[in-house]
Known about the structure:
The complex is a heterodimer.
Chain A: E1 15-20, H1 24-33, E2 42-47, H2 55-64, E3 68-73, H3 84-101, E4 109-113, H4 119-136
Parallel strand pairs in A: 1-2, 1-3, 3-4
Chain B: E1 6-11, H1 23-30, E2 36-42, H2 48-60, E3 65-70, H3 73-86, E4 94-98, H4 111-130, E5 138-141, E6 145-149, H5 153-164, E7 168-172, H6 195-208, E8 212-215, E9 218-226, E10 229-236, E11 242-248, E12 250-253, E13 257-259, E14 274-276, H7 277-285, E15 292-293, E16 296-297, E17 300-307, H8 325-339, E18 344-349, H9 358-367, E19 371-374, E20 382-385, E21 391-397, E22 403-409, E23 411-416, E24 418-420, H10 424-430, E25 457-459, H11 469-487, E26 491-494, E27 499-501, E28 521-523, E29 528-530, E30 550-552, H12 557-568
Parallel strand pairs in B: 1-2, 1-3, 3-4, 6-7, 6-12, 7-8, 12-25, 14-23, 17-18, 17-23, 18-19
Antiparallel strand pairs in B: 5-26, 9-10, 10-11, 13-24, 15-16, 20-21, 21-22, 27-30, 28-29
Helix pairs in contact in B: 1-4, 2-3, 4-12, 5-6, 5-11, 7-8, 8-9
Amino acid sequence: MTNVTSEGKDFNPKILAFSTNNISDPGIDLAGSSHLHYPPGVMVMSMPCTSGIKPEWVLYAVEKGFDGVFIAADGEECAYLPDCAERTTHMIKRAQAMLQQKGYDPQRLRMSAICSVCAGPFTSQIKEFHQTLKNLGPARKE
Amino acid sequence: MSDRRIGVYICHCGGNISDYVNVETVRQAVANEPGVVVAKTAMFSCSDATQQEMIQDIREQNLDGLVVASCSPKLHLPTFREVARRAGLNPYRYTQVNIREQCSWTHTNDHAGATEKAVRLVRAGIARTNLTDPLQPIVIDTVPAVLVVGAGIAGLRAAVGLADLGLSVYLVEKSPNPGGRVGGLGAMYPHGKNGRQLIDRLVGEVRKRELVTLFTNAEMVAKSGTIGSFNVKIRVGGKAPGEISVDVGAIVVATGFDNYQPAAGEYGYGMDGVITLPEFKKLLDGTAGELEYNGRQVKDIVYIYCVGSRQQGGENPNKYCSRYCCNAAVHASLQVSEKSPRAHQFHLYRDVRTYGKYELMYNEAREKGAVFCAFGRDEPPGVASGPDGKLVVTVRDLLTYGEELAIPADLVVLVTGMVPAANSGLTELLKLPLGQDRFFNEIHPKLRPVETMVDGVFICGTCQGPKNSSESVASALAAVSQGASILKKGYVELEPLIAEVDPQACDLCGDCLNTCPYSAIEQDTAAIRINSAQCKGCGGCAPVCPKGAINLKGYTDSQVKSMIDALLKEI
């Protein structure tokens, strides 16, 4: 199997995507049910709400070998918190500052609102992010 | 190392997974993960046989953790938690890994990539399971009452069904009268019964039941609470306007559909003599003798099918089939044959979907002389005015080798379909997800057909998608069974995956106290605690704590980090 963290034209970024159980994860499921393709280096971890993501997790993921972290947020649709988007944005700023402090490009963290039927938008966003990370190269320089 | 005893099952899903993911490779790659004592593949994990095998393994191997790598947890998380429970294993020590929607189905073009990803995902599930604790669900008493929104045929039938099971029902109807679309119909297919009379009988049944309160001119304006215990505000208009507050355990949404309204000029709509199917139906139902339109005898009728359905382009195309309109048009055609036996009837269709026994109706229409012509989707018929005040419909008929026909018509009936009812306020209020076709979305069309992503809120009838009246009633009864099965038990069990404070790490700084809109975080002199009845389990408070003392159960620091490690482990 290919070593996906190696540099060069075969570099295939690994992306950790945080989704939410009720809104964006069904959207990502729908991408699969519709047989839309995105790179298999994208791995999804579902949470109740993206405002519960600790910025430390983002840094941890990048330090351990993910090349980027994608937050599939609920946007205005969050059933829990009316200010979910604000909270998640705040968390992202903290996480980006942490990344930058450790010498990682803050572009390695991206957020986008993905709704429960946003199969197409998720696929195009994640592919675009994948390309951005490909251009940035691996997060960890061995 | 782990001293856990975890069973891992990797599902073929009959090929849905194993056609793209080498499940045996995955099994071998995870069999020696920490804590794993059983690793198997299964053709269908959700089958009774495999469920039995899991239960046997859990008991015989004394398993204390369970991982099933199969479809989306939306589908089978409850199934396998139940398997765990039946085997005596705490259900919260179960982890579902989604290797279908989020792996095999989305990487159908990359089998090696999909297999490698599946290994990573299953390892992460195992890592999470290693760190699960047995949890007890939060039990909430339920209110034995249901709010039914919409008093059309589905809402009325649901109200009767719920009342017969001993539940109180608040039936809320926006318009001044109950009955909805069916209440406006005369003879209906396939039984020939009169819609108005059907509704009158049903309203009579509702009135007989003291448990049902019907509000007309009324609308739900606010909703709070969760499954088992919602508080709903109903604004009632009419003669004595006011707002009523009721407590209910569940909500059934039966808000129906709107008829597709053709744009001006669409198949000549707007020209004299071009009408929609509902307009035609009204004309038919109101005619006792021979059919007349604007004082003129109707001798030639042309039906154009699939208007507003199965659209290919445009801004918001209705790509779906509206399901009821072929049958309704054929039935209308039979009504015409009775009233005006000498009328010529031409049905221009793309495909005829008179499914099931309705096929008999289609045959009868043909036997009575109706002519069916097929047109291609790229060559829709044209409607223009012709001589003698008639209309002329031109069509290339695919059944006669593409012959061009010009059919004179007194009436052109546009066989229009159903569109989602305009009720964005309700969508907003209930936070109900919409499907691709913009109708309310069920969790699964076959497995959980009347449940929604919002626990305790059920959908039925045509607010969910096109249906005929009997299908609407069937789904209303399904919603009754689902709703009642929760409320008759008297309690619901909620996810115990709520926040917790580590008293060792907490220094009582109080930063978290104002972050919870549900007031679930409480402080006294000695400690900060989470109120388990208030906490919704969103985890929004967790990143706020500067000491990292708050964790959401099931998504703890150590679980998330161990999952990240497992996802990245060398293949």
